[in-house]
Amino acid sequence: MRRRYYASQGTFFDDEHLDKIVEFDASFQHIKDYRIDFKSPYGIQGLEYLPGTDQFQIHSHGKVFYRINGRFEIHSLILGQANFELQDLARIDAETLVVNNREDQTLEFVKIARNP
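Below the sequence we write its predicted structure tokens.
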């Protein structure tokens, strides 16, 4: 289990900037910045670690999301597309994510796929 905290940072409301993830330790001391060779539509909206997969799921402000391994290596990036505009996400347990459907103003419960 990862015992570090992660925050998305450097999010811009456009499609012109590469995604940036900032790693912090448990006392919120800066560890490292990661530049992902991907431009989330309108910036990063949500980020959640998926235990058991060693992946992060990252949501944009649009319908695009991606998964990337815990080392943020570009070769591990897997793109996905939702049927609705995304907002934040949260992990309930090892099997379930809660995703905010912005347009319908509902919460969607999503089973975590092990091999998306």
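DSSP finds no helices and ten strands in the chain.
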